[in-house]
Amino acid sequence: MSNISTEWLYPARSFSLIFRDIQVFSLHIMVQLLSGLVSLTLLLFSTLTVASPHVKRATLQQVTNSGISNPTNVGFYIYVPDKLATKPPVVVAIHYCTRTAQAYYSGTPYARLADQYGFIVIYPSSPWSGTCWDVSSKGSLTHNGGGDSNAIANMVTWTISKYGADTSKVFVTGTSSGAMMTVYDLDIIKIQLAEADRYIERNGRHLSGDVCSRHRV
User: Fold this and answer.
1) 171-212, pLDDT tens digit by residue?
2) What is residue 94's DSSP assignment?
3) Quick one: DSSP state of residue 129?
4) If exposure means fewest CB atoms within 10 Å of the residue's CB, which of 38, 81, 170, 172 is most exposed?
5) How is domain 61-214 classified at the CATH fold level?
6) How far from 17 is each of 4, 22, 23, 24, 28, CA to CA, in Å?
7) Is-catalytic flag, 2?
8) Cα–Cα distance between 91 and 169 in angstroms, integer?
């Protein structure tokens, strides 16, 4: 009789032991879950840190005292990276209708690429209602005609002069109405830079051969 278990005579004690075991097991599970949650949080944080957007050190600047001819009052904005290349290229980035220079700066990768490669980005801003570009008037279609294209070309020559940019590496890009403007600006910029090159040649500092053939979009 002494070898027979008597736990059945004390059911409250048996339930207490079972409840204690359940509590210990639940606590163990909670510790494991919290440990896994902390590990997952750290993993997500490190992933977001690595994949965080590029932070530009320089900022978009408005040029208001350039002294260029700008009869239509086209906004002149420029991005010059902190680490500027020697004789840097110049990219003209022209926005589309309903947008501005600031929006095109924020919504395109040119400034980020400028930080990486050391080139300058010019962001013209349309002065017209709806912010489309004048791509049909005689002024915009004519060299020195006083239109939007002429103002943008003047921004390019000013930038080349101020920063010692490479006249063989001038590029023009744009979207929609801005893309139409690139067609006119390309030819006008070529003409203006060719004239500037001839002026340099007359002053004994000729850079190289046919300037018109060396400008690209």
Assistant:
1) 888 899 888 888 777 767 766 665 544 433 333 333 333 332
2) E
3) G
4) 38
5) Rossmann fold (3.40.50)
6) 20, 9, 10, 11, 17
7) no
8) 8
Q: At what angle do helices 177-202 and 148-163 cross, to 10 degrees?
A: 50
Percentage with pLDDT > 70 across the chain:
59
- Among residues 46, 136, 176, 208, the one annotated as catalytic is 176
- The 3-state DSSP class for residue 41 equals helix
pLDDT digit string, tens, across residues 94-120: 999 999 999 999 999 999 999 999 999
Q: Which pTM does this prediction carry? A: 0.64
Residue 194: enclosing H or E segment and its boundaries? Answer: helix 177-202
- Which amino acid is residue 92, in one-letter code? V
Query: What is the greatest pairwise CA distance in the chain?
Result: 125
Asked if residue 190 lies in contact with residue 157, where contact means CB atoms within 8 angstroms, the answer is no
Q: How far apart are CA 187 and CA 169, in angstroms?
A: 15
Rounded to an integer, what distance in angstroms lies between the CA atom of residue 155 and that of residue 63?
9
Q: How many whole angstroms separate alpha carbon 67 and alpha carbon 73? A: 12
pLDDT, tens digit (0-9, with 9 covering 90-100), for 141-151: 777 788 898 89
Which amino acid type is present at position 172?
V
pLDDT(152) > 70: yes
Distant-in-sequence, close-in-space partners of 39: CB < 8 Å, separation ≥ 6:
none
Q: How far apart are CA 31 and CA 109, in angstroms?
A: 46
How far apart CA 18 and CA 23 sit, in angstroms, is: 9
- 27-39 burial, b at 16+ Cβ within 10 Å, e below that, comes to eeeeeeeeeeeee
